[in-house]
Amino acid sequence: MSPSSKEHSRGPKLTFVRRIAGTALLAGFPALIVALALLWTGHYSERAQWTISIAIVSFWIGTGLALRRRIEVPLQTLSNLLSALREGDYSFRARQSKGNDPLAEVMREANAIINLMREQRMDALEATALLRKVMEEIDVAIFAFDAGDRLRLVNPAGARLLAQPAERLLGATAREVNLGRYLEGEPRRVEQAPFPGLPDPAARWGVNRSSFRQGGLPLQLLVITDLRRALREEELQAWQRLVRVLGHEINNSLAPIKSMSASLETLLRRNPRPSDWEDDAARGLRVIGGRAEALGRFTGAYASLAKLPKPNPKPFEVSAWVRRIVALETRLTIQLLQGPEIVICADADQLEQLLINLIRNAVDASLETGGLVSIGWNKNGASLSVWVKDEGPGIANPANLFVPFFTTKPGGVGIGLVLSRQIAEAHGGALTLENRSGARGAQATLLLPLN
Predict the structure, then answer these.
(1) How many Å apart are CA 444 and CA 373, to the nearest integer?
(2) Residues 377, 386: Cα–Cα separation, whole Å
(3) Which residues have C-beta within 8 Å of that of residue 253, sequence separation ≥ 6?
(4) Whether the Cβ atoms of residue 181 and residue 213 lie closer than 8 Å to each other
(5) CA 29 → CA 24, 36, 40, 61, 358, distances in Å?
(6) Can you tell me the distance from the alpha carbon of 302 to that of 304, in angstroms, rounded to the nearest whole number?
(7) Per-residue model confidence as pLDDT tens digits over 211-221
(8) Coil, strand or helix: which one is 131?
(9) Which of 88, 122, 213, 260 is the right S-S partner for 284, CB 3.0 to 4.6 Å?
(10) What pLDDT does residue 12 have?
(11) First CA to last CA across the chain, in angstroms?
C-alpha cells in the first residue's frame, strides 16, 4: 500500500467536503466577529445581546453545514455510481441530472457512461455465448495454450479427438496431451497422424496455429481440422468428372466403330457382293483405324497429364529459351519483344513444352482472323513474367479454359492448357489466360519465381 493510500485510510472520511465547509465558515468568521462586536458594544439589554448572538452563531454554523450537505450528497452519489460500475452493477442512475448547471451535466454524463457500459457488457455477453455455442457445435478441434504451453481452453470436438474429458485435459501441458509438435514448425500445414479419438494412421489433418491475448496474457490458438470428408468429396467429384469425360470420349470413338463394323458385316454377307465392295471395306477399315488412333491419342494424353514428373531445375537464360521456341513455329512470324537478360533455375524441358502450347494456341487463334502474335518478358518484382498475345477472336467461354479434355479445336484432346498450368504450378508459379483489355484477342501470362 502506498503512503498516500495509508494516509487516506487513517484520515477522516470526506476530507474534501470538510475542507470546503471549513473554508466557508472561515470566510464568514470575520463578519461574525464584527457583528458580535457591534452587538455587544451597543446599547442593548444583556438578554437581547445573548439572544441575537446565539441566532447569529446558529445561522453561521447552519449555513456551513448546509453548504457541506449540498456538496456531500452529489459526491456520495458519484461515489456510489463508480462503486456500482466497479462491481459490474449497471442498474444505478443519478437523479440530479435535470437542469443546465455543471452538476447536472456531470450526472447526465455519468448516466450516459453507465448506459454505454451496460450495452457493451450485453454485447460482450451475447458474443461470448455465441462463441461458446459455436465452439460446442463445430466439428473442428480447438485448443488454446498459455505461455507455459498449458492447455487453457478446449472445445468438445478437441476433447473427442484426444478421447479424454475436458476437465482432465485443462491444465495439462501440450506434450502431455501429445500436441507439442503442433505448436512448432509452420503455422499452417497438413499432417498425417493418428489421434486417440481417431486412430487411423492414414487420416490427414489441417493444422492452423495463431496467437491472441486474453486478460492481457498471450495465448496460442491451435485448430485441427479433419480433412477426410473434404478429400472424399473432392475425390468423388474428380471421379465423376473423369467418368463423364472418359465416357463421352469413348462413346464418340466406339459409336462410329460399331456402326462401321455392322456395315462391313452386312456387306460381307451380301451375295453376290457389289463390284466396289473392296473400296467400301477399305474405307470402313480406315474409319475404324482412325477412330481407334484418336482413342489412343486421348488415353495417351490422359497418361501424360496424370504422370507429369517433378521438375528438374537447372539454370538457363530466358532469352535463349524464348527464341528457341519461337523459331519452332513456322506457320506465322511471331513478333519478339526483347526483355531484360535474366537467368532462372527451372526445368527447361517442361517449360519448353509449356511455351510451345501457349504459342501454338496463339497462332491457331490468330490464323482464324489474320492477326499477329507477339511474345515478350520482363521482371515483375521477385517473379519473371512471360506473356503471349494474339489477335484472334478471343475467349468465348473462360470458365472451361482449364477443364481437362475440354476443347473447341477439331481433333484436339483438351489437355494443353491443363498440362501447362500444372507445369507452372509445379515450379511455384502461375498461368493465366484472359481476353485482352482494349484490343482484340487474348493474352496468356506465365509467372515464375526468380529464386
Answers:
(1) 11
(2) 4
(3) 291, 292, 294, 295, 298
(4) no
(5) 9, 11, 16, 10, 104
(6) 5
(7) 988 777 889 99
(8) helix
(9) 260
(10) 46
(11) 61
